[in-house]
Design brief:
The protein has 325 residues and is an alpha+beta fold. It folds into 2 domains: 138 residues, Probable inorganic polyphosphate/atp-NAD kinase, domain 1 (Rossmann fold, 3-Layer(aba) Sandwich), CATH 3.40.50; 148 residues, Tumour Suppressor Smad4. Helix content is 36%, strand content 27%. The strands form 2 sheets. Strands 1, 2, 3, 4, 5, 6, 8, 9, 13 and 16 form a 10-stranded mixed β-sheet that branches. A 6-stranded antiparallel β-sheet has the order 12-11-10-7-14-15. Strand 5 and strand 6 form a beta hairpin. Helix 2 crosses helix 3 and helix 5 runs antiparallel to helix 6. The mean pLDDT is 89.
Length: 325
């Protein structure tokens, strides 16, 4: 049994994952960790589940190096195999919303890899909710959305897979902007519907004509927006909001990055639901994303059921004294 294991996405951060892999031995040697106490692998898409499962079984603490998608894969397998395994993240992705929610992104961004890794080795593990999406088909870690923003992500994902994105991070942002502008008239089609189970019972939410539905497990969304300030990831509920006007959606997703008080004001004016379960009925072609991955038309008959799945343990730097410096 290894004390520590790393699963590293080599292409995350524009290839930074490979650099992390190359530096690990030197860094861990400087911490006094013996070579037989840890192991590291770079992700192999052809056997990713097998690879992840083996590392989960062989280690007490597993650190995923990559973006939210990499950690999402790890947590999906942890949920199914060993929920008590302590899981950490070194954030190299584009949005890094889970890393932001755990306080890891701030340390990595301000102090770098060595400091982030040193803190993760000492960090406490705290409970974190995972949600089942589609009766075992997917695991929701951070959030899901359907509507306009999921359509933008779908366009981006398809362009990326076709090799049509150029210009690095700036080119990605410009593509997002163009994709958003081209979809400003999007509204949910007839037949789109949501049901939310709260402690007070079921609430029916017709979606036709509305713009976006967002269901969040964490308090960070779209690379640092805060649509649900104070949201907890260990309370067994998802916070759900439906935006019927674009100005409200853009105000909360763009404005809350700059003015945290704006998010608190919007929380009072924008209805939200504390969901124990969520059911979506989405006509064919309605955009849907889960943790930044496109799931449009991914569920039989356009029906998606989301319910609590498991509580795992994540390494958390938010409450660590050293995370403040």
């Amino acid at each position: 049994m290894f004390k520590l294991a790393f699963l590293i996405n080599p292409v995350s951060g524009g290839g930074v994952g490979r650099e992390v892999f190359a530096r690990l031995e030197e860094i861990l040697d400087s911490f006094g960790m013996k070579r037989d106490a840890w192991t590291a692998e770079m992700t192999d898409a052809s056997r990713l589940e097998e690879q992840t499962d083996a590392l989960i079984r062989a280690s007490r603490r597993l650190i995923a190096v990559g973006g939210d998608g990499t950690l999402g894969i790890v947590l999906d397998r942890v949920r199914r195999l060993r929920p008590n395994t302590a899981i950490g993240l070194i954030p190299l992705g584009t949005g890094n919303d889970l890393g932001r929610a755990l306080g890891v992104y701030r340390v990595y961004n301000a102090k770098g890899l060595v400091a982030c890794l040193k803190r993760l080795l000492k960090a406490p593990s705290l409970p974190f909710d995972l949600w089942d999406a589609g009766e075992g088909k997917a695991t929701l870690v951070s959030y899901l959305s359907t509507g306009l923003d999921a359509g933008v992500l779908r366009a981006f994902d398809r362009a990326r897979k076709r090799g049509k994105l150029f210009g690095g991070a700036l080119g990605n942002k410009l593509y997002y902007l163009r994709a958003t502008l081209s979809r400003l008239r999007y509204r949910f089609p007839a037949g789109a519907h949501a049901r939310v189970e709260t402690d007070a019972g079921w609430i029916e939410i017709p979606l036709e004509g509305k713009r976006v539905l967002l269901a969040a497990n964490i308090n960070s969304y779209a690379a640092g927006a805060h649509p649900f300030p104070g949201n907890r990831f260990d309370d067994g509920v998802l916070e759900v909001a439906v935006y019927d006007a674009l100005w409200k959606y853009f105000l909360i997703t763009i404005g809350s990055r700059l003015l945290p008080g704006l998010a608190r004001w919007m929380r009072r004016s924008q209805p939200r639901h504390l969901a124990r379960r969520l059911e979506l009925r989405l006509p064919h072609g309605t955009p849907l994303q889960i943790d930044g991955e496109d799931h449009t038309n991914g569920f039989p008959e356009g029906v998606l059921n989301v319910s609590f799945a498991a509580r795992v343990r994540l390494l958390d730097l938010r409450r660590s004294f050293y995370a403040l410096f």
